[in-house]
Amino acid sequence: MLVLDVHKAQKTQAVKDVMHRMHTLSVMVPAGCTSLVQPLGVCLNKPFKDRIRALADQHYVDHILECSAQKYAASEHHISMTQWVGQAWESIH
Question: Residue 27 sits in which domain range?
Answer without folding.
Answer: 1-32
